[in-house]
Amino acid sequence: QVNLVESGGGLVRPGGSTKLSCSFSRVTSDEFSIGWFRQSPGKDREGVSCIGSRGSGAYYLDSVKGRFTISRDDAKNTVELRMDEVKPEDTGVYYCAADVVPFSRLCDLGAASLRGVYGRGIQVTVSS
């Protein structure tokens, strides 16, 4: 059973920066794509950014392109999401997710396979 644990987040001022980290275990690095989803108040959960294994590529939601950066370190079993120039609409609960699908499909469809899994989520609030 894959295990994902998120950390970071909290309260951030508009225009500021923060970093989310996802520690994963029981993941065979070559199999799984890992990504970040968010659920904002009144909205469905959406894929923010997802990354494949061994530098195979990354996907970003249009609204975060140029502001967010995803990175992955399989030696340390971590995936990080660097969030710069944050906006109030970035507020939400952010979930780490993993699945044995290409990274673009993970962000498009979610961790929907039998091996897909989400973490518990972590709150990010962008407010002055």
Write the layout of secondary structure elements.
Layout: E1 3-8, E2 10-12, E3 18-25, E4 33-39, E5 46-51, E6 58-60, E7 68-73, E8 78-83, E9 92-99, H1 103-109, E10 117-118, E11 122-126
Parallel strand pairs: 2-11
Antiparallel strand pairs: 1-3, 3-8, 4-5, 4-9, 5-6, 7-8, 9-10, 9-11
Structure, described:
This protein is mostly beta strands. It contains one helix and eleven strands. The chain has one helix at 103-109; strands spanning 3-8, 10-12, 18-25, 33-39, 46-51, 58-60, 68-73, 78-83, 92-99, 117-118, 122-126. The longest helix has 7 residues, at 103-109. It is globular and about 40 Å long. The termini are far apart. 36% of the residues are buried.
List keywords for this structure.
128 residues; 5% helix; globular; mainly beta; 7-stranded mixed β-sheet; 1 helix; 4-stranded antiparallel β-sheet
What is the string of helix and strand elements?
A: EEEEEEEEEHEE
Shape, per Cα inertia axes = globular
Q: What is the strand content?
A: over 45%
- Low-pLDDT sequence parts: none
Terminal-residue CA separation: 40 Å
- Please tally the helical runs, counting DSSP H or I stretches of 4 or more residues: 1
Question: Helical content, roughly?
Answer: under 10%
Radius of gyration, in angstroms, nearest whole number: 13 Å
* Number of DSSP-assigned strands: 11
- Main β-sheet description: 7 strands, mixed
Query: Mean pLDDT, as a whole number?
Result: 93
Classification by helices and strands: mainly beta
